[in-house]
Write a structure and sequence with these properties.
CATH class of one domain: Alpha Beta
CATH architecture of one domain: Alpha-Beta Horseshoe
Strand content: 5-15%
Order of helices and strands: HHHHEEEEEEEEEEEEHE
Number of strands: 13
Bound molecules: 2-acetamido-2-deoxy-beta-D-glucopyranose
Low-confidence stretches: 1-7, 13-42
Shape: elongated
Family: Belongs to the small leucine-rich proteoglycan (SLRP) family. SLRP class II subfamily.
CATH topology of one domain: Leucine-rich repeat, LRR (right-handed beta-alpha superhelix)
Distance between the termini: 48 Å
Main location: secreted
Strand order of the largest sheet: 1-2-3-4-5-6-7-8-9-10-11-12-13
Function: Affects the rate of fibrils formation. May have a primary role in collagen fibrillogenesis.
Mean pLDDT: 89
Helix content: 10-25%
CATH superfamily of one domain: Ribonuclease Inhibitor
Largest sheet: 13 strands, parallel
Organism: Pleuronectes platessa (European plaice)
Pfam family, one: LRRNT
């Protein structure tokens, strides 16, 4: 099984190796293939512009070929690779005979929301991964199958997400929406019971999304315009381990006291904001990034509420460089409380 997954991943990755000579390489490959007797038995249904290797009967490789349309996908195909082409639209019905599809790989095309039919993906009841990143989409495609676990929509032009876009997608575990122009996501993540990773870096958010799913472990919100964190935001997401809020507009006023003092948190990135104080964090936190803020004092009580031999912080990485403090501001007792930190960058 692992070997199969590896083969499939190669389908995505190998383009980095063949990008330079690909355009003509695939053509000569195509022309050559009729001479091989081994192609004939299984491959009669393979579209001319694609490769369907006999060694992997359910995969169809059509990447890096200047395609402008999705070719016919035979019904036996489970994995279709269409990345790095010039596909602008997909009409309803194109995948209707390919209901076994598990992976549809379409990143690095020119997909335009107005040219995608309302039911292009809706019949794909087994679809697991849908990779649509690096296109020109302005909306999330409608009627996505509820079976999807990995949905990638990063690096598009999505500005608004309709409330029903992800409705009922109870198996979705990873949702990538980074590098779009999203301002508001009111309630759209409600009901995503399995979601563990939400990537919304480089958007136009002014607030932390509300109704975050209960199982969320990784929340990436760097490069937005977030000014504050709501009271109790982490107690509503008890599974969160990694919270990244670097390059926002956070100030002390926007952080309720103790909002980050949550024992499940492992990594907190608040670098490149406007904080003047070190927020109180849990003793279980391991990585804390606070560089490039306006911090003026080193408050040991932010890490340990009492100083003694037995209670200490698990912190390993602490960055405080590019603030308004120096090594002289760190008290000697820090050595007890922060005994796992190898060195503090100031
Ligand atoms: C699907 O298969 C049927 C029967 O084999 C065929 O008539 C039809 O044209 C196919 N549809 C598409 C979109 O290729
Ligand atoms: C979600 O995953 C479970 C377990 O793998 C599966 O039984 C179920 O059919 C999936 N739901 C959908 C809508 O595909
Ligand atoms: C952080 O939370 C823990 C556990 O809830 C609590 O014991 C501790 O006093 C809190 N730290 C501060 C500085 O309030």
């Amino acid at each position: 099984m692992q070997r199969v997954v590896l083969l499939l991943l190669i389908g995505i990755v190998d383009l980095t190796m063949c990008q330079h000579n690909s355009q003509f390489h695939w053509l000569s490959h195509l022309r050559g293939r009729r001479r091989h007797a081994s192609w004939q038995a299984d491959q009669v249904d393979c579209p001319l512009e694609c490769d369907c290797p006999t060694t992997y009967f359910t995969a169809m490789y059509c990447h890096n070929r200047n395609l402008q349309h999705v070719p016919y996908v035979p019904s036996r195909i489970k994995y279709v690779y269409l990345q790095h082409n010039r596909i602008t639209g997909i009409q309803d019905g194109v995948f209707d005979n390919a209901t076994n599809l598990v992976w549809v790989v379409l990143f690095n095309n020119q997909l335009n929301s107005d040219k995608i039919g309302n039911n292009v993906f809706s019949k794909l009841k087994n679809l697991d991964r849908l990779l649509l990143d690096h296109n020109e989409l302005t909306h999330v495609p409608p009627n996505l199958p509820k079976s999807i676990t990995d949905l990638r929509l990063g690096h598009n032009k999505i500005s608004k997400i309709l409330p029903k876009s992800f409705e009922g997608m109870a198996n979705l575990t990873s949702l990538q929406l980074q590098a779009n122009v999203i301002e508001d996501v009111r309630g759209v993540f409600k009901g995503l019971k399995s979601l563990t990773l939400l990537d919304m870096r480089k958007n136009k958010l002014r607030k932390i999304p509300d109704n975050l799913p209960e199982r969320l472990q990784q929340l990436y919100l760097e490069f937005n315009s977030i000014e504050s964190v709501p009271e109790g935001f982490l107690t509503l997401c008890p599974a969160l381990q990694y919270v990244r809020l670097a390059h926002n507009k956070l100030t002390d006023k926007g952080l309720p006291s103790n909002v980050f003092n949550i024992s499940t948190l492992t990594e907190l990135d608040l670098s490149f904001n406007k904080l003047e104080k070190i927020p109180v964090v849990s003793r279980n936190l391991e990585n804390l990034y606070l560089q490039a803020n306006k911090i003026k004092e080193f408050s040991l009580s932010s890490f340990c509420s009492a100083i003694d031999m037995t209670t200490f912080s698990r912190l390993r990485v602490l960055r405080l460089d590019a603030n308004e403090i120096s090594a002289r501001d760190i008290p000697a007792e820090a050595a007890y409380c922060l005994r796992r930190v190898a060195s503090i960058d100031v």
